Amino acid sequence: MIEGTIPTRTALVLRQTAAAVGVSPVQVAGVELGADQGDRFRVPIESAWRMWEMIGAAGGPGAGLCASGAAAPGALGVWDYLFSSGETLGESLRTVMELRAAVTDPAVDWQVIEAGRLLTVRVGVAQEADPVFVPVEEFVLALVLRRIREATRTGVIPARVAFTHRTSARYAAMTAEFGTTRIEFGATHSEISFRDGARLPTGGDPRLGELLCDYARLSLTTARPLPSWLDRFRTALAEALTAGDLGLGAVAARMTLSPRTLQRRLTESETSWRAEVDRVRRQRAMTLLRETDLTVQAVAGRVGYSDARALRRAFMQWTGRNPNEFRADPARVLESAR
Fold first, then answer.
1. In whole numbers, what is the pLDDT of the chain averaged over residues?
2. Cα 144 from Cα 96, distance rounded (Å)
3. How far, in Å, CA of 102 to CA of 9, rounded?
4. What's the rounded Cα separation, in Å, for the pair 226 and 42?
5. How many angstroms separate the CA atoms of 258 and 30, rounded?
6. 16: which residues sit within 8 A by CB, 6+ positions away?
7. Which of 14, 90, 197, 251 could make an S-S bridge to 51, C-beta 3.0–4.6 Å?
């Protein structure tokens, strides 16, 4: 299971929500969300939080309800159908929470609690004051209710809805969405409860439910993160070096960015143009010295240095040894440089 990431399907819902509440396309373009690539690929969780911050700022109270409306049945892949994977709502919800990594960071704590006749879905375990949690809580609880209603084929009404935030400006919209006035703000936990909900029927085919669960687990096992922005930049930089066009403007053009934006993104990634150019030259020079019989002068030209002397100076800075010493015993030189 890949932690610290979310599926691209979830990212697509956030992108659609951002457009609906008026977030600038330029702002959205600056967040690494990938394309909708099904259940196989994941994007960094930091991207999700940046999107939620923009959605909350642009949409204000109720932005989370807009997000749940954007998540039509099936929009979140197999997870949407796990709400009917068991014979009863209680069984199905336990599976939904167990496999929550299909739609969110698995570190997020979602629980199903049965206490007497009350069935509760709890999201998070501590009160949060960060404004970003306002749309997130709205989205998750509204989405859970929508999926429960779809799975049970009823208009089930919550016995209680609770938010940790105190933003009640859209109370009327909340009561319309949840179908109840029993909505609390400033609660200890974000949760939604149902009376006598655990035994509501949700699944008509136990074998189908098992297949859905197996597919969800397989998707999580085989999921892999998409390359980060910095990974893609480094690929573009390496390609520019190979093409002999190692300039800031040329690399920015490869990434369809302005030079200023490229430099800003590098700063945000806690690196710099100079450091990255030095890094790609070092990697390429070492590869050529290890794997080819090119002269030091030829290697220097391949990595963008004017002559062999410039490469020798760079090599001394990188490893404390010259290129010929590296070529004779790369492992020993690299070990001594650590």
1. 87
2. 10
3. 9
4. 6
5. 12
6. 70
7. 14
Helical segments of 23-162, H only: 25-29, 45-59, 63-70, 78-81, 89-98, 133-152
Count Cβ neighbours within 10 Å for each residue of 58-75 and write b for 16 or more, e otherwise: bbebbbbbbbbbbbeeeb
Alpha-carbon distance 117 to 194, whole Å? 8
pLDDT value of residue 3: 56
- Tell me the C-alpha distance between 321 and 324, whole Å: 8
CA atoms of 108 and 137, how far apart (whole Å)? 12
- Token pair for 292: 């080819």
Contact 234, 242 (CB under 8 A): no
pLDDT at residue 256, rounded to an integer: 81
Give 285-291 contacts, CB < 8 A, sequence gap 24+.
285/311, 285/314, 285/315, 285/323, 286/326, 286/330, 289/323, 289/326, 289/327, 289/330, 290/327, 290/330
Task: Encode pLDDT of 288-297 as tens digits.
Answer: 988 888 899 9
Residue with tokens 């949700």: 202
Indicate the SS3 state at residue 41. strand
Is the distance from CB of 153 to CB of 83 less than 8 angstroms? Answer: no
Q: How far apart are CA 30 and CA 269, in angstroms?
A: 13
Residue by residue, DSSP assigns 183-240 as EEES-SSEEEEEET-TT-B--S-HHHHHHHHHHHHHHHHH-EEPPPHHHHHHHHHHHH
pLDDT band for position 85 (cuts 50, 70, 90): very high
Question: Residue 50 to residues 27, 104, 136, 327: CA-CA distances in angstroms?
Answer: 10, 14, 12, 46
**Distance of alpha carbon 267 from alpha carbon 273, whole angstroms:** 9
Q: 122 and 50 in contact (C-beta within 8 Å)? A: no
Provide the 3-class DSSP secondary structure of residue 162: strand
The two structure tokens encoding residue 128: 């949060």
Asked if 98 contacts 60 with a C-beta cutoff of 8 angstroms, the reply is no
Contact of 82 with 212, CB cutoff 8 Å: yes
- Asked whether the predicted pLDDT for residue 125 surpasses 50, the reply is no
